[in-house]
Amino acid sequence: MTTLEKKVTRLEVVEPKQLNFGKKWDYAPAPEATDFVKIKPRYELFIGGKFVKPKSGNYFKSINPATEEVLTEVAEANEADVDAAVRAARNAYEKYWSKLAPAERAKYIFRIARQLQEKGREFAILETMDGGKPIKEARDGDIPLSVAHFFYYAGWADKLEYAFPGRKCRPLGVAGQVIPWNFPLLMAAWKLAPALACGNTVVLKPAETTPLTALHLAQIIQEADLPPGVVNIVTGFGKTGAALVKHPDINKIAFTGSTEVGKGIMKSIAGTGKKMTLELGGKAANIIFEDAPMDQAIEGIINGIYFNQGHVCCAGSRLFVQESVKDIVIRKLYDRIQTLRVGNPLDKNTDVGAINSREQLGKIKELVESGVQEGCKLHQSACELPKKGFWFPPTFFTGVAQSNRIAQEEIFGPVLSVLTFRTPEEAVEKANNTAYGLSAGVWTDKGSKIFKISSKLKAGVIWANTYNKFDPTSPFGGYKESGFGREGGLHGLLPYVKLVR
Ligand code: NAP
Ligand code: MG
Fold first, then answer.
1. Domain boundaries, the chain
2. Does domain 3-30+282-464 have CATH number 3.40.309.10?
3. Nearest atom (ligand 1) to Cα of 279
């Protein structure tokens, strides 16, 4: 530890009113222009290559969670609509997609990737307006990563024999895919790209609060001239997802969302022979040792939990700090959250945007309240929150015990629980003390310690001296109640193929 850090360690953590951060200066507003983005007043279902009215006759509203303004209304698919979509997908599978040469399939997927890349700015704005995430995240994260997934899996379509040497692989048929609201376009890309590359056709159900980018992707798919029915998009609520999951003519279910719904889906398809992958919740541990590069680690921790308002299944929501550096880490964390800019997600300077829905805000508040009731110490940013919309300030708790709800349950908001440890063994034991096993982070100066610790952590993805880094070539997925199966990379092909000798 440097002399300066030793001095800082002795500082007391002070309360927001004493610090008055954010009042001294701020950036001038830098809002992204939205006038060239055309949001239609109403969106229909995308079935058999066409936008069709729902048999249900019902529509629901999608709002901007930062302003509560209604953006559009979207068709609600009922069982009959889902059935029509599955039939269209089956027909497309049998008539066109399974008969197409793999290199031809690749061309279509490349076409989607290029079109999406061309319209990247429009998609970033739509994602921000519909879901509340900061434009800099949608623009620099969600959209380029979605494009990269389509490019990456387009490349695999005619090379599958190299992915599984000595084996032949066949597509499964029709895939039913259900996705959440935290990364709407990215989750669609993670699901569609490998399914199509492997020769399957798809029915996709986006989340009810964030259907817009998937529906605009449907327009791209139409323009890319994919054979009708290869991709179908049915919007709606949980009931729509349930109808898709239980449809008898589906061969494969891919689901990302809550552990609770994931478990229900598993039960509902038991014994049907449907292949399945589940990407569920998480309660990731970020472990910071006394020899870690401290400022880098603080930035990584900030990125790990306040990024995307903590609406991230792999969010580093538990921080384990070695006791010798506890004071300095807490002090630095406290100072840093005061400088995070919370507000208009369309502003290019915004770090923390709006909470996705009123319902999610309620869940965050309830869990934060439980932390206070259980005696943990609350630290919050003193930022001013906008009057309209759904907002929660960057928050962390100290004095957290392993048994507290905020140390065990997924909050899915910008809330961090800070715990401490003395030895590496204790860090591993505490980090693994959760029902989840999606991701983790290790911060230390020693490469050997990274290998030792990460080999003992029960998590699907482990970052070292960094956090929340994604790449289409790298597999992602969980252990325990975080689900099973991998998305991304060569591993992400496996859930969409049948291997034959
Ligand atoms: P969720 O209910 O699991 O929703 C995920 C997707 O499943 C949505 O498209 C949802 O539709 C659909 N769905 C809901 N009930 C279904 C059912 N019975 N059968 C099939 N599909 C169904 O998650 P949520 O309500 O959006 O969020 C609840 C919690 O899940 C969050 O607080 C968070 O803890 C967790 N979560 C995890 C992730 C992740 O990436 N691991 C993502 C989002 C949420 P609707 O949108 O219409 O409900
Ligand atoms: Mg919305």
1. 3-30+282-464, 56-280+482-500
2. yes
3. 41
Asked if pLDDT for residue 221 goes beyond 70, the answer is: yes
For the full predicted model, state whether its pTM sits above 0.85.
Answer: yes
| Ligand with smallest separation from the Cα of 69 | 2
Tokens representing residue 163 in the block? 């992915």
Asked if 313 is an active-site residue, the reply is yes
Per-residue model confidence (pLDDT) at position 6: 40
Residue where the block lists tokens 């770090």: 351
What integer best gives the mean pLDDT of the chain? 94
Residue of 279, 410, 481, 487 with catalytic role: 279
Q: Give the separation between CA 119 and CA 262, rounded to whole angstroms.
A: 33
Q: Which of 313, 314, 376, 383 is catalytic?
A: 313
Atom of ligand 1 nearest to the CA of 206: 9
Minimum-distance ligand to the CA of 359? 1
* Closest Cα to atom 40 of ligand 1: 313
Residue 290: Cβ within 10 Å count: 16
| Superfamily of segment(s) 56-280+482-500 | Aldehyde Dehydrogenase; Chain A, domain 1 (3.40.605.10)
Three-state secondary structure along 386-433?
CCCCCCCCCEEEECCCCCCHHHHCCCCCCEEEEEEECCHHHHHHHHCC
